[in-house]
Amino acid sequence: MANLKRNMIELVKEVKEGEIVTKKYLTPVFIPFSVVYEAIDMTEQIDKSDSNKNASSERELIDKLMDFVANKIYKGQFTKEELFNGLHAPDAIQTLQEQIVFVAQGKQTDETKKFLAKKS
């Protein structure tokens, strides 16, 4: 168990004179298997929302995704509000879904793999 998989998310902290200041967060060293069940439930909700789109249910789902990522996956390293304001709009939904996929299936992004390799 020495080599446990981890994932990363990068959030924008501020924009200074056209330059962005970001911070990278790593998942905790251990994520309990029980969180996988919750990730599976989130995936099912995403699939259901894709089939019957309506604005209020989609907003509700995004809210749940942000809460899950901030509190269950990253254990409060950042708040839901920091996540909401720190994701780049065009990539936000994909980024949240990648975090869910990491927990449910163990898939890391290439960016995460590179970051962890540099850190070692």
Structure description:
There is one protein chain. By secondary structure, the protein is of the alpha+beta class. It has one domain. Helices cover 57% and strands 14% of the residues. It is built from 5 helices and 2 strands, in the order ββααααα. The chain has helices at residues 34-51, 55-73, 80-86, 92-105, 110-119; strands spanning 8-16, 19-26. Strands 1-2 form a two-stranded antiparallel sheet. Strand 1 (8-16) and strand 2 form a beta hairpin. Helix 1 (34-51) packs across helix 4 and helix 2 crosses helix 4. The longest helix is centred in the middle third of the chain and has 19 residues, at 55-73. The protein is globular and about 40 Å long. The two termini are 17 Å apart. The model has no long low-confidence stretch (mean pLDDT 89).
Number of strands: 2
Side by side, the strands of the main sheet go 1-2
Shape: globular
How much of the sequence lies in strands comes to 5-15%
Quaternary status: single chain
The secondary structure category is: alpha+beta
Q: What's the helix-strand series?
A: EEHHHHH
- Radius of gyration (CA) equals 15 Å
Number of helices: 5
Number of domains: 1
Q: Give a quick account of the main beta sheet: strands, pairing sense, barrel closure.
A: 2 strands, antiparallel
* Helical proportion, percent range: 55-70%
Distance between the termini: 17 Å
Rounded mean pLDDT is 89
- Spans with pLDDT under 50 lasting ≥5 residues? none
